[in-house]
Amino acid sequence: MLDTRFRFENIIGNSEAITQVFDLMRKISDIDANVLITGESGTGKELVAQCIHANSKRSHKPFVPLNCGGLPENLVESEIFGHVKGAFTDAKQSRVGLIEHARGGTFFLDEIGELPMPLQVKFLRVLEDHKIRRLGSNEEIEIDIRLISATNQNIEALIGEGRFREDLFYRLNTFEIHLPPLRERQGDIQLLVHHFLNYFAETSEKAVQGISTEAMDVLCEYTYPGNVRELMHVMERAVALSDVDTIQLEDLPENLITQTEDIIGSAQTDLPFQDAKDAVIENFEQTFIDRLLKAHNGNVSRAARKNGTDRRTLQRLISKYAIDVSTYR
Ligand SMILES: Nc1ncnc2c1ncn2[C@@H]1O[C@H](COP(=O)(O)OP(=O)(O)OP(=O)(O)O)[C@@H](O)[C@H]1O
Ligand SMILES: [Mg+2]
């Protein structure tokens, strides 16, 4: 039976962008092709991977995740492939690798961009021959897995820098699912807010039922460098803090409220420079267009003319942020 946590309808959203993701997921769940899921941190890559597995014919077999990041090379290798006793100094006992645990099911390689080069070579062979060898063993073991991998890095850039094998990349991304950052699917924010509000109200047994318009406005305008995960934590905190039945502005973290007031001041130093800069610029673009459209009652041509901006430039930005111009009329 399908684990109810991983039904498609548990991926919340109805923006154009996420609808396209659903369509693709439906098409590829049941075929055995490898899938590469890309997107910034917190956009839902693992959730999508689990949903694909749960909706595939492998659903009654294991879904085995491994994060390739942060582990030393030899450890990742024995995690994946297993080893026999005495294969290396610390190998006091033999061990079955994760890839064997995933037999018949789905192996999820998270942060694939971090997979060390020598292991990339080994992995390529697994995908070609469907066979593995435990470390220190000569015995070949047949392996039937579906591989789903995920990354928040630009793999093509890594290939350019000689840090990722192009041949492996083409094996991994028979299908690529890109999850756009939350700031590019603003239309999903309200749904997600209500979803998490209900979820945390239920699990914490609090009688929170709604959210004030001011608080919702701030949530809709914020740019979420941490994407859906950040929004989820914001809602968890808001439900916990709330002492009336509606979430108020003061239940939201200070940085969300000040971001819209002071765009540059919100630059996040815990993000890489380029990401922080992009977030600031996107935040600025959204606020600017919002004000411009408000000032001209959603008349795009007039807004462009009065502002001295090319109409097409304005239209492109309106599409980029999926802004519904009719709401300004
Ligand atoms: N569209 C969505 N609807 C409901 N919950 C979501 C959605 N997208 C993400 N989430 C939730 O947000 C959290 C973060 O998602 P997930 O762990 O899948 O992100 P990720 O892209 O794998 O992030 P990272 O790159 O940091 O590993 C999870 O708790 C997930 O269930
Ligand atoms: Mg993840």
**For the largest beta sheet, what order do the strands appear in spatially?**
2-5-8-1-9
Distinct helical segment count = 14
Q: So, the CATH homologous superfamily of the largest domain?
A: P-loop containing nucleotide triphosphate hydrolases
CATH C-level name of the largest domain: Alpha Beta
Percent in strands? 5-15%
- Given helix and strand content, the structural type is alpha/beta
Please describe the biggest sheet, giving its number of strands, its sense, and whether it closes into a barrel: 5 strands, parallel
**From the alpha-carbon coordinates, what is the Rg to the nearest angstrom?**
23 Å
Bound small molecules, by name, code or SMILES, are: adenosine-5'-triphosphate, magnesium ion
- Average pLDDT metric: 89
Helicity level, as a percent range? 40-55%
Alpha carbon gap, first and last residue: 48 Å
What key phrases describe this protein's structure?
46% helix; Rossmann fold; 329 residues; 11 strands; single chain; 2 domains; alpha/beta; two-stranded antiparallel sheet; binds adenosine-5'-triphosphate; Helicase, Ruva Protein, domain 3; 14 helices
Describe this structure in words.
A hairpin with an 8-residue loop joins strand 6 and strand 7. The strands form four sheets. The protein has a five-stranded parallel β-sheet with strand order 2-5-8-1-9. It has a two-stranded antiparallel ribbon with strand order 3-4. Helices cover 46% and strands 11% of the residues. It has helices at residues 16-29, 45-54, 73-81, 98-101, 117-129, 155-160, 166-172, 189-203, 213-221, 227-241, 254-261, 273-295, 300-307, 311-320; strands spanning 35-38, 63-67, 82-83, 95-96, 106-110, 131-132, 141-142, 146-151, 175-178, 210-211, 246-247. The chain has two domains: 4-180, Rossmann fold (3-Layer(aba) Sandwich), CATH 3.40.50; 183-328, Helicase, Ruva Protein, domain 3, CATH 1.10.8.60. Helix 1 runs parallel beside helix 2 (45-54) and helix 8 (189-203) crosses helix 10.
